[in-house]
C-alpha cells in the first residue's frame, strides 16, 4: 500500500507562509505590547469611576453653573495657568477643567474637578508629568509608543500595526482548509484540548486567530487611522465614493466684528453655553474649549448624546465676537456622511465603546487573543 504524498504547495502559498512566519517573528514583540496594553486600558473609565469618588456628585433638580463660574474656581488652584478644556458630565458626574502645560521640558496635564451644580472644588489631579505614578498613563504610553519618546515610538507602533493587519490576511490564507472534507473543517474550527502541547498550541494560534479575525482587523484598521494620514485618507476615499478627506480644521471667527455684542456682565462663553444648552437639553455630556487660542478661532462646544461613547456628538461653533452660529462638514453625527460617521466612530470602535459595556468586554478578549498570537506563533516556529 502506497503512502499518500503530501499535496505540494503552490508558489503563492509558499510566499504567503514565508511572509507570515518572518513578519510575525519581526513584529511579535510590538503586537504583544500593543495588544496587552490595549487589554489593560479597556476598562480605564470604569476602574477610575470605581476608585475615584470625586468623579461623581448627587444629582439635583437645578441647572449647572455656567462655565465662567467653574473657570473662576479652577483658577484658584491653577494660578497663572491657561485652561485648555472644560467638561460637564451627566447629571451624576463632576465637571472638570483641564490644563495642559510643560514642566522641565515634559508635558503636564492637571484636572480640577468641581460640583457642576455649585462650582464647589472637589479634587485636583495631575495625571501627566507629575512625580507620582499613574498606572493608566503608563499603560497608554506603552500602547501608543512602546514607552519610547512619542516621535520615535508612534511610527514603530504604526508599522507594527500595519504588519499585524497583513499577518491577519496571510493567516487566513494559511488557515483555509486545503481539502473540502469534514475532518479538515473540524480541525480548522475546533481546538483539540486532549492533544499534545504542540497540537493544542497550534490550535490556539490557528483557531483563535480565525475566530477573532474580523474584530482584530477592526482594531488594527482603526489604529492605523491614527498612525498614518495616508491610511486615513485612503479609507475616507474608499468609503465616500472618491472624495478627499477634509482637513481637521474648524470655522473661523471674524475679528472685524469685535465690539458687535453689547457689553454686559455675562461672558461670551457663558452666552454660547446657554445657546447650546437650549438646543441640547438631553445631552449626556459637554466639552468646551474655554479660551480661543487665536484671534479668529471660534468658541467650540461639543454635546455628547450618549453616556460612555464619543461618536454620537453634535459640534457647535460660534463666532467669538458676534456669537453667530458657524457650521462645518461632519459637525452633527446624525447628519454626517458615511465616511464622516466612520471617522467619528473610529475611537469608539477601537475601544469597543460603540457596543457599550459588552462591546468593551469583547474588545478586551479580542485584544487578549491578539496578544497571544505572537506567543503561540513563536512556539509553533520554535
Describe this structure in words.
This protein has two domains: 11-42 and 145-242 and 353-381; 58-116 and 253-328, no CATH class. The chain has helices spanning 11-41, 44-51, 67-77, 135-145, 150-175, 182-189, 197-211, 213-227, 229-239, 268-279, 338-351, 356-381, and strands at residues 85-88, 95-103, 106-114, 121-128, 285-288, 299-304, 313-318, 325-326. It has an eight-stranded antiparallel sheet with strand order 4-3-2-1-5-6-7-8, with helices on one face. By secondary structure, it is of the alpha+beta class. Helix 5 packs antiparallel against helix 8 (213-227), helix 7 (197-211) crosses helix 12 and helix 8 packs across helix 9. It is built from twelve helices and eight strands. InterPro entries: PepSY-ass_TM. Keywords: Membrane, Transmembrane, Transmembrane helix. It comes from Cesiribacter andamanensis AMV16.
Short description:
The chain has helices at residues 11-41, 44-51, 67-77, 135-145, 150-175, 182-189, 197-211, 213-227, 229-239, 268-279, 338-351, 356-381, and strands at 85-88, 95-103, 106-114, 121-128, 285-288, 299-304, 313-318, 325-326. It has 382 residues and is of the alpha+beta class. The radius of gyration is 25 Å and the shape is elongated.
Amino acid at each position: 500500500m502506497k503512502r499518500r504524498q503530501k499535496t505540494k504547495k503552490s508558489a503563492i502559498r509558499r510566499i504567503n507562509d514565508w511572509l507570515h512566519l518572518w513578519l510575525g517573528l519581526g513584529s511579535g514583540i510590538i503586537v504583544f505590547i500593543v495588544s496587552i496594553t490595549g487589554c489593560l486600558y479597556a476598562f480605564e473609565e470604569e476602574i477610575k469611576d470605581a476608585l475615584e469618588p470625586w468623579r461623581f456628585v448627587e444629582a439635583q433638580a437645578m441647572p449647572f453653573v455656567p462655565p465662567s463660574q467653574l473657570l473662576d474656581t479652577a483658577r484658584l488652584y491653577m494660578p497663572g495657568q491657561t485652561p485648555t478644556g472644560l467638561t460637564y458630565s451627566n447629571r451624576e458626574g463632576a465637571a472638570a477643567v483641564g490644563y495642559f502645560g510643560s514642566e522641565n521640558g515634559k508635558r503636564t496635564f492637571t484636572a480640577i474637578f468641581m460640583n457642576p451644580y455649585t462650582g464647589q472644588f472637589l479634587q485636583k489631579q495631575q495625571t501627566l508629568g507629575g512625580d507620582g505614578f499613574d498606572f493608566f498613563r503608563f499603560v497608554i504610553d506603552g500602547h501608543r509608543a512602546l514607552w519610547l519618546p512619542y516621535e520615535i515610538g508612534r511610527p514603530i507602533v504604526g508599522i507594527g500595526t500595519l504588519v499585524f493587519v497583513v499577518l491577519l490576511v496571510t493567516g487566513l490564507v494559511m488557515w483555509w482548509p486545503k481539502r473540502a472534507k469534514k475532518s479538515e473543517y473540524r480541525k480548522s474550527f475546533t481546538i483539540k484540548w486532549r492533544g499534545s502541547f504542540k497540537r493544542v498550541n497550534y490550535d490556539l494560534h490557528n483557531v483563535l486567530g480565525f475566530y477573532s479575525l474580523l474584530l482584530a482587523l477592526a482594531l488594527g484598521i482603526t489604529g492605523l487611522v491614527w498612525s498614518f494620514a495616508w491610511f486615513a485618507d485612503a479609507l475616507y476615499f474608499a468609503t465616500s465614493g472618491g472624495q478627499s478627506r477634509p482637513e481637521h480644521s474648524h470655522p473661523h471667527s471674524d475679528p472685524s466684528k469685535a465690539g458687535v455684542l453689547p457689553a454686559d456682565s455675562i461672558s461670551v462663553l457663558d452666552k454660547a453655553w446657554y445657546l447650546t444648552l437650549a438646543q441640547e437639553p438631553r445631552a449626556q455630556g459637554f466639552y468646551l474649549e474655554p479660551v480661543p487660542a487665536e484671534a479668529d478661532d471660534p468658541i467650540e462646544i461639543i454635546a455628547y448624546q450618549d453616556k460612555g461613547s464619543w461618536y454620537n456628538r453634535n459640534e457647535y461653533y460660534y463666532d467669538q465676537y458676534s456669537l453667530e452660529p458657524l457650521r462645518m462638514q461632519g459637525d452633527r453625527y446624525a447628519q454626517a456622511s458615511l465616511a464622516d460617521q466612520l471617522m467619528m466612530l473610529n475611537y469608539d470602535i477601537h475601544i469597543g465603546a460603540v457596543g457599550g459595556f459588552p462591546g468593551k468586554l469583547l474588545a478586551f478578549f479580542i485584544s487578549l487573543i491578539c496578544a497571544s498570537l505572537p506567543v503561540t506563533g513563536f512556539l509553533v516556529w520554535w
